[in-house]
Design brief:
By secondary structure, the chain is mainly beta. The protein has one domain: Sandwich (Immunoglobulin-like). The chain is built from no helices and 17 strands.
Length: about 150
């Protein structure tokens, strides 16, 4: 026998002998749905994920990404940057040029002349209200802006 509400199952197994219950124990099991955590878009009605985890941005300019997908959202707590790599090597972000909005998860790049025309891979962690953590990456590919002001 079991009852289920809000992702929590109540299980009551029993041991029977000659039609009589000789032992039973009740326990609860919390079942979390499969979490989705990435940069892009998620259409839950179709279970369709569109990842946009590599973005071309203009060198030296300010930038703010869209918030990452975190589904189901009710388990979302906050976000943090774990590390940054520049072309596969550790990048020391001592000036805080690359930052994150702890509530939304949007990655920000401040106006600067430190970052170079390279790929910057940002490791982002989502902290979940259940105590779990999830990681994803966002790669920013820095390119000089074109002469007409548009990105290539």
């Amino acid at each position: 026998m079991y009852a289920c509400s809000f992702g929590v199952s109540l299980l009551i197994p029993s041991l029977k002998k000659d039609g009589f219950t000789v032992a039973s124990r009740q326990f609860r099991v919390a079942l979390l749905p499969a979490m989705k955590f990435f940069y892009g878009a998620y259409y839950s009605e179709y279970d369709l994920s569109v990842k946009r985890d590599q973005l071309y941005i203009a060198l030296y300019n300010t930038f703010e990404s869209n918030p990452p997908v975190f589904y189901p959202e009710k388990y979302k707590n906050d976000f943090e940057i774990l590390s940054v790599e520049k072309d596969g090597e550790v990048f020391v972000n001592e000036n805080g040029i690359i930052s994150i909005d702890k509530e939304s998860g949007a990655v920000k790049v401040a106006h600067n002349h430190v970052l170079q025309q390279r790929c910057y891979k940002i490791w982002v962690q989502a902290n979940v209200s259940t105590g779990l953590t999830f990681e994803t990456t966002l790669t920013l590919i820095m390119e000089p802006p074109s002469e007409d002001g548009h990105q290539h």
